[in-house]
Structures are given as structure tokens and as C-alpha cells.
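Batch manifest, entry 17 of 40.
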Amino acid sequence: MSDLASAYRPPAPRPLPPVRALLRAALGSERDLLSMLPEESYRVSVAPMGYSRRSILLVNEPQIVRRIMGTDVKAYPKNDLFVGALEPLVGNGVFISTGDNWRRQRRMIEPAFSQLRIERAFVQMEAAVSAME
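Output type: C-alpha cells
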């Protein structure tokens, strides 16, 4: 992969230095929780978010996300803060829905993640990255 491709960053809030993140959270000037995260939150597998009395963790590790979002979903219920933070970004999709609605959405998207489909999509993703060079 070229330096240009590895430097690509999808659209997302820019990480903030810790003091600015804390100040932004304290002032409540942002409704988007992701824009209040300090840079360190993006570099670790699991990051505690200490802005609330609730125990909130930001998970960056794919294996842990897979467990939370798929294999052991009942052990990790989605709370209202999680839903409120993500709904403006993703709508009422599989990431924030629960119960029967989640199961129905999960069954609908499951075929898209079969090995064959991912392999086919990879060719297109690789071509897109090459076009960026």
C-alpha cells in the first residue's frame, strides 16, 4: 500500500488534544460525542470515557466489537447515551437497533459479509486505493 493510501482518513471528527477534549465536554458545546474524544482514544483497544457517571467504553478492537455487536449481543445492551450519540450518524440501523428489529436487520445484511462477497469487494476497494495514488 502506498503512503498516500495509508494516509487516507475517512470523514470523521478530528481527534482533540486531551485538554481541549475535556474543555469541550465540560462546556457541553458539542452534541456529537465522537468530536469530544481525545487523540489517545483512537490509539488503544478500549478507552474509558470519563465524561459521565456511567461506565462508558470506546472499543476500537475488531474482535471485541464483533463480540459486542454479534456473537454476545445480549450481554452488552445498548444504552440511551450510545443510541443518542450514534443515531444522528447512522440512523436506526443495525448499530443502534435492539431486539427483534436488530435481529431482522442483522439477517438482512449477513449475506453481504460472506467470504465470497468480501473477496469481490476487496478487488474494488484495492482499485479505489490504487486510483488515489
